[in-house]
Structures
1.
Amino acid sequence: MNAASNAAPEFDPATLDGLERGIVGIDGLWCPSCAAAASRAMTKVPGVTSAEVSYAGASVALAWEQGADLSAVARKVSAMGYRLTTPDMGDGMEERIVAEMRRVSIRLMVAIVFGMWTMVLSILLYLNPDNIAAGATGRALAIAAGATALPVVIWAGAPIILAGWRTARVGVPGMDSLVGLGVTGALVASIWSLALGHSEVWFDTAVMLVILLTLARLVEMSTLRQSSRAIAALRTALPETARRIDDNGDAHEVLASDIHTGERIRVAAGERVPLDGQLTNNDSSFDTSIMTGESVPRTIAQGDSVEAGFINLSRMIEIDVSAEVGKRRIDIMGVDIANALHARPEIHRLADKLARVIVPLAITLATLTLFIGLFMGLSGEDASLRALSVLIIACPCAVAIAAPVSHLAATGAAAASGIHFRTHAASETLGAVRRVLFDKTGTLTEGRPVLQELQVRQDLERTQILALVAAAENEVVHPVAKALRQAAKDSKPLKATKTERFDDGVKATIEATEVLVGSRGFLLRHNVSLPDEGQQNSGLTAVHMATDDVWAATFLLGDTLRSDAAATISQLRGSGLILGMASGDAPAPCNHVGAIAGLKPDEIRSACTPEEKAELVDKGPGPTAFVGDGVNDTLAIVRADVGIAATNASPATIALADVVIAKGGMTAVGEAIAISQKARRVLRQNLVFSVTYNVLALGLAVFGTVPPLAAAAAMAASSLMVITNAARLRAGATTLDDVKHHSVNMTTANLSKA
């Protein structure tokens, strides 16, 4: 069933000799239920301590004791119809998903084309004009309905039935088992009814289940497509080549993977560092946002460490390599992310929990009804019809479609607001979170420094000062220089005739005026007297300017809070959520932004590394959602119960997130939570209704008071009720106000019982 079945190399256990854990590809997964079944089967192999299967990544994170036979794991998986392969973390993963989407699309089209005729013929039988169901015409219509249903069930529904059998066989029946039972029961019951000479058939039920689940699977796979780029997105943040310095001091461009520890490389100003190491020749300033999330440059001194992904901003530098490709900090993060992805539960849905009870119950009740009827002296035909009614009613069609239709409705409602739920689990889990953590830069804020305040000497004009600073900072690549140039975009452009750059400032001659622009220390070293800092906001970055050795201006720059951040924080707090901020920035700007946004001092964590953000997610009360936008947020994104990619997030963040905010900023985060809360309520209502219907109808069917035709009509009605209730998610805009009367704590408590 998998696109890469022939292309992916077979797994060789020898590649993991001497290790106790590793990631292995798994080929042939059809659904998250398949992943859960494969995981359970592999953990039954002696010596295997854990097997976390990722349906999205088509791989498994295995852990085992020394001496465990990994070949036995491969044989166990093969017996289930899957295949262990070498893991594919690159373009091949996306190709596999795209190819499978193509096949699912074809199955869906076939199911719709043939299923449409089955539905039309079945409706005629249900309406029964002129009592046609009782005669030859009714029987002909029933046979025709079966003929058009066969391609749907045998071809389009085969993967669902097979997946349902596989999961049930290892004791973890899920959605596919539910649907497979409904499809098989309806098909067998219809054929048996025709064999007895009746025209009561339920082919439409089988067709409806196949179409709905195949459609839901296609939607899920289309959103999972981005997940195939997760680790690849991290790698694209780094250059593939590096300039190696030979014994003669000459630099030659080679693949970064060919550079070894102890060798020296050269990185020009404006380039991204390809490997971890130590600066050997010069101090320089760097954009370290890939790890810290902060765009304000950081000065790193000669002899100190730099990391792959940093952008060199000031001058040509040389680096002694300390970590090769595969051992860099960002590579280690990639491994952590891969393991975290596998550790995420993919099969904790409410309907899947019910499936584990309903599937064996339905089969048991139908069998007992048959034998009890025979024991009570009923004829074989009457006992079979009574058992048939029980099986039809017990076939949990409404339960089986409750989750897919709720997810589809929630996905549609969210998409209208620029919100993309990428999995069933995301649309269900987000509404149950108790805590939401936010990154600062690019999430709560706009993500770039802008001029907040300008202090100018009394005899100078603002436009003149802005024109001078823009000319002095012309072509400098760091974000502060860009912010100063942006502030001067409406001023008359000037040109510097002479420029000398330093680590913490610039000296330029502009129209016979000597201009100094830089840090406080830079101007003091040039004997410029500066005004007292006074009450300057500690959350802002100060850049000073002097003309002809006299202080001229101070530029105060800082990131800007998103216009909707404070309101969203207030709304989320009002709904009972625990809130917090985790940032790689320094304490002063974090406290400044947090206070404006409405966060309390004890809710703000500053100077966090990517690993510390992930630890913060793990340690607090859950379920937890983390909202971020940068590569430095990716580990926290995958560790969270729900990872949310903010508007304009990096490709790596988007690839790993459960929920992607395409537009709408912080307001959309609140809307996503509200939609998920509403979706959970609708799903819970559907499940309660479906189970109640099944229990009541089963009681009647067991005692023979519900004929098969009435059972089929009741089952169709229950499914229609579920679909109609889910459609309410699309009826009108959903806002956070819709759920104020349902606190998050109450929602969590109620749903945890389901």
2.
Amino acid sequence: MRRGGDSPLPPSPPGTSDWAALRRLLPYLWEYKWRVLAALAFMVGAKVANVGVPVLLKNLVDALSLKPGDPMALLVVPAGLLLAYGGLRLATSLFTELRELVFAKATQGAARSIALSTFEHLHALSLRFHLERQTGGMTRDIERGVRGIESLISYSLYSILPTLIEVGLVLGILAVKFDAWFAGITLAALGIYIVFTVTVTEWRTQFRRQANEFDSAAHTKAVDSLLNYETVKYFNNEAFEARRYDESLERLRRARLKSQTTLSLLNTGQQLIIATALVAMLWRATQGVVDGRLTLGDLVMVNAFMIQLYIPLNFLGVIYREIKQSLTDLDRMFTLMDREREVADAPGAQPLALDGQPAVRFEDVHFAYEPSRPILHGVSFEIPAGKTVAVVGPSGAGKSTLSRLLFRFYDIQQGRITIAGQDIRAVTQASVRQAIGIVPQDTVLFNDTVEYNIAYGRPGASRAEVEAAARGAHIHGFIAATPKGYDTMVGERGLKLSGGEKQRVAIARTLLKNPPILIFDEATSALDSANERAIQTELRSAAQNKTALVIAHRLSTVVDAHEILVMDAGRIVERGTHAALLAQGGRYARMWAMQQTSGENGG
């Protein structure tokens, strides 16, 4: 397994990636194979009926060569023209609508399955990927990828295949009914048209891809700037952000202009090919009528065939471009799905087995986010079952890394971490995280109601359970005093709440989850002294008979811990109870004296 991060697969050549994207899409469609086959049958029926219309017109025109006043004229024209022509037109529309109706479930089902797979895979990627990602660009790639699935299926099944079927039928009729020149001209025009369209489209795809990249970049800058709205305001940088966004928009504008210019070139060439073929066919047919080899009905049929072919051929270039674009968008989404999982469950991993309160052990743990920057150096300690161990030390000592490793957001390079004697790398990640609850230092909430954010600790919890957890976190009174109570919206990332309110929501969320292992990572850092003391009492109560890891800066919050570890530069430099560490007169004692003097202990 790679340890360097969630890495993408090596980029494939454009043609290879197109076929690879199609191969990956087919299994999702094949889940609806009977609908696919039915849709194909309806499509063939629609095209057979469509091709039958010019043949009918030829017969009707030839049948009109009756003598003036012949009573058969009144019978042939109304009955033949209205009934047969109307029937074929109706059949064409009916089969087309049936095809779309039958295949709609397959299209939407495939789009839903791929979008869900991508979403689940992104959640399965490591924390490293999510710390490095660009949210705006990534969401844009997913959005375009899902839309690309629908476009790809729609254009290929509803346009490319029907056009090919219709071309085949028309070529067969022209070759059988007339001389080979008619089929030859049609086939040559089609071949030249396709070669020209594919060649020019492949050339101009680079401009579309470039426009997509600039579009994602502009979207990323906009989203990032809006998410950091307060920071922008703090530093009075609205104009700076606008300039950055405008630079991205200007690059996007230039790329789209190149794309539009090459599109005009492509359209002009296509029209020239079609017009030349149409003139050649009609000249050949008109000459045949003059020479007596063809009837007037034959001329009408050839003209009708060319008009029917002209319309889909005219859109073939647009369709091919859209298919290429859809494949490009789909490939970008599949690239996200191909990101390697840095942290993955071992083959055959079983859920964590717990019987009562578990003990947690770190055994000679070495860890580095990057090989050149080691964070932990042989850290070993145990949190006995049902006991509380606190970790203190300066910023950058590696305290919060311990919680990330216990959650298995990263895998360690050496040593092992066990819960109830089981190496967390040998059991499923989901079961490890289910057994742990955390109150993080930086609480981020969903842009939803207060109730939703507290209930996120245990989805499906009742309102009474949510309120009980809120009372435990000393936030029920505040929530009840707001006009909408538990239905109050907290805003993007919870920005409508103060830091202390957000942290108390996080505490309530963890109390509701009620896991056997608790982690408090600076859990009261955003609270004032009075609230800190109140919540410390509740946290001690919540940690009663649970295995708890407390990461703290203020030493007053950990004096009751069964053991206190003092970390510095990724190593444990002191350990013991509060009283024992004070008696040693070492680093902990100096930190305590400093905080007592500065009043940071809240006393």
3.
Amino acid sequence: MTHAISVHDRYAEADIKAFYEAGFWRPEGLSALLDGQAEARGGKVFVSDGTSELTYADLRDQALALAGGLAGLGVGHGDRVAVQLPNWTEFFAVAAAVSRLGAVLVPIMPIYRAEEVGYVLRHSGAKAAVTCREFKGFDHLAMFTALREDCPDLAAIVAVRGDGDVRLDDLYRPGAELGPAPSPDDGFLIVYTSGTTARPKGCFHTLNTVRASAAAIARSVGYGEDDVQFGPSPVTHSTGLATSFLLPLLTGAASHLMEAWDPAEAWQRIAKYGCTAAVTATPFLQMLMGAYDPDRHDAASLRLWVCAGSPIPGSVVRRAGEQFAGCRVLSLYGRSENFLTTMCTLDDAPDRSATSDGSAIAGASVTIVDELGEEVPRGTQGDITYRGPSHMLEYYRDPEQTAALFTADGRSRSGDLGVMDADGYVRVTGRLKDIVIRGGLNISARELEELLVEHPRVAAVAVVGMPDERLGERVCAYVVPAGEPPSLADLTDYLRSKDVATPKLPERLELLDELPMTATGKVRKHVLRDDVRRKVTPK
């Protein structure tokens, strides 16, 4: 096992005590939580995906049996298990089994290909990987098999819904002897996120740090056992994991997963399964509203839609209120380092979601600071910082970037710019991080730039986000040609050859004689963002 810091290294003993006393952290682990729900409501369907379903008792039994099979593959306490699956019920069983062994779940979104997946496998030192045989025409198992040669720690690859050297269906070992259940303060999750650097960073969480956010959301929206969570967000992403898995599990609710997003199909699923709530990036709601036909679609079951990932345009909140009279739209701002930073609650005035991204939830403290880490006056833009029970322990295997997160008084910088009003409500106004947020997916500009600059017809390149009504942003590449100018297709074909995921590909190309630079040689990206904004904004 590679050494990682403990909860006592990250949090002061007084904070740990306070979190437990206030109930933000709890002593029971995931297996104990699942046991309790299985005893209380064993026959209730907990999760469905349109083709399969698991009751609470099914999930408990499968998780224990699968833990025995994974243990037989050599997976133990502290080992990392990478999981790249679509929104299928099997993901929940695998996650619960991994947790029962005290191993660490490393989820990977299905859109990622060899470059991203290989990095995560190597960096995490994953001992086992669980993936599908095929999804959307792509052979995930073949990709993992090819990557195995460069991943010396990877001892086993498990295939779901298909044949492979190890099949998930063959791994269930009912009655297998398992060791003691792990502490909820042990390592539970490493979720990788792209930020300012070319390589993703692994946010290393305990069960308690993730559960604190899910429980806070539940309290803020009056979530209970009668709710049915609608889950189009990938469960292998922080949003989907916290809100489609932990949120309903904590409250005895149900969860319905959607493996491939289609707004027309989404309306059918919502009606069929009686979905009451969702937490997604804003574009999901915008596309759902665009597809809504009151003569064909039934929105009666929906009571709540929480938008995260990017600020909600006020027009979206107002239009949603008009279209779906019984559904409240709330805003949430978070990041993989601490999941939930601010949110609007049912107790807030309805227009708060149109004008802010909410305020800090009980137990957490959010402030806006300057470059020196000093709090700025209300109404002044600065870096949004967080302190509270949801913060990760570290960037896995990266003590330097972990240390760089914190201000002198121990607040975690987000790198996102925001303004706090007199009542404590925050509005995200921009970001220090050089990323493009496309439909809730963070895309590292630097990652693309470092690949594109190797293209023989590219002398210099800068990648920025361009506004998009449906997805929030799309990728635009500004290129200084080397000789004959490349076409957009030239660049996207080249990036595909480097196994870059399709949603990350540039969707607009602008050619320049030279990039706008500062006196110190830095690209003036705000100039490029303003330029493309003018070009794509309707007159």
4.
Amino acid sequence: MVSTRGRAIALTVALATGSLALVPATASSAEPRRGAAAAAEPGPGTNYATDDPFTSERTSWFRNDRFGMFVHFGAYSNLEGEYKRPDGTVCRNAEWIMRECKIPKDEYEKQAATFNPKDFDAKALVAAAKSAGQKYIVITAKHHDGYAMWPTKQNKWNLRDHSSFDKNRDILAELKKAADAAGIKLGLYYSIWDWHDPDFPNADTFPQYKKRMHAQLKELIDNYDPDLLWFDGEWDTDNPTNRWSSRDGEELESSLRGLSPDLVINNRVGKRQVADGDYGTPEQEIPEAPVDGQLWESCMTINGSWGYARWDDKWKSGTELTRNLLNTSSRSGNYLLNVGPDKLGRVPAPATDALKAMGDWQNHAGQGAAVSNAGFPGVVSEPDWGVVSRSGNDLYASVYQWPGAGKPLHLTARTPFKVDSASVLGSDQKVTVTKSGDGYDITPSGDATNPAATVIKLSITPASPTTEGSGTGLKAEIFDNDQLSGSPKVTRTDPTVNYAWRFRGSPAENIPDDHFSTRWTGTIEPRYSEKYQFTTVSDDTARVWIDGKLVIDNTTPHNQAVDKAAVDLQAGKKYSIKVEHTQQTGEAYMKLLWSSPNTPQQIVPKSQLSPNKG
């Protein structure tokens, strides 16, 4: 994982590129085709946005599962967190031990040759994940030390060819088989930054490294059919110099989607920007609210280290971890909780104990419904006594600070709704619900059911939506200049505003990849009468008008940026909308999303857009 040092990320890095074949997702309209793979080379007319990750079938499992296991396991595990220097002093680290302890390359290779994780048990690892309620596993196939945990054909620096491990075993194949049997998704971590490969830091030879990297990733896809690829090591740094650029990210992501269209990919495939990959990756922290413009997953350690360290006994309690999980799911995020097997491949008992405690909590009285298939509640604000998640028309109030029998818990309503019933999961105590001030008072008659979180289930009737619209999108006028001037070169109907043209794409084949602009006009029809948040993800400029009022105005050329505006709308009414985007040079993006108390964040769908202003 990333250390706490050197996380600054530049938006562009000059880099000589290699000649690698690309299979981008292309579309002439703004409604990308799921799993589309067209021309072998990108260029004008290419849209890299294959779908809307907030709503697509491709990402539905990721959005619903919410809870995964991260596994940091590699040649560094053999040292178990300690390196004894020639002078007798001991340096401590985990997965960064080679670099942070300045272990000479030949000495690191020598210790890796003794690595023998003979006790690695894929079924036991999957069982531990299952017991915790984790629905997917992401394991480090290659970390920053470059050591491959599968029998790669690209080098000998791997578990089969450079270890004391059984040459007939393949732990990734074993894990894939066990995960499939248990109905658990498998993801693979791959570090872009490579401390071992001599071609990596040199500008002249970096293209050769990239070629091998693409080949290794193709091996992983072909041999293990992962559901997810988790990249890391994309940031600008030295020792060794990291030359990865946003252009490299465009190239790699496009290539991977051609190889496996249903892959879910994190944003570290590029430069960790809001439109890179499918989701963001906050590390060792949980955002205070849903992340604007992208899905997200918080990765965290179960103690203080990612890889195994025999001296690290800072184990988090089951209560803390359970609350982390609830905090994450209630903000529409995923929780990727790490374990680090020891040099023999065994997961430490304190880790499995904590995982079991989390699973026991979820399995008790159906409390896991507050996590799986649940997300941001929308209709209520987050209270100071816990969190609230929502699944359909059920709210799950996870209470950390129980008020005591007969004392109320207040919920602030963000939009009108009716509470039909209320109950404490795992208890037959009565729960009284009364309107109070800006929301409801929820009053349980008894005690808390457990110390981690007591869940009160509220079945609600939300405001009634209008019928689904029958729109077809917005009128798009596309110009071959960045001033929206003159006559448009292309006029068409775009089903949605969901574009990632990146460096080499553009809105149409006769529009250059730089210095273009687009104006979308028509009407927008909300499903609910409530306050909507409009969000744009853009590069270089973006402006949005609703009913003639300018609500988003970012005309200073910028890299990937998120802008927001709140607008009160009435269900069934059609409002005029105008969206303008200009592109000068570099990357180009334009996405228009909305959300409301009863509308989860998403690209504004074509059904609610019409190209006609009447």
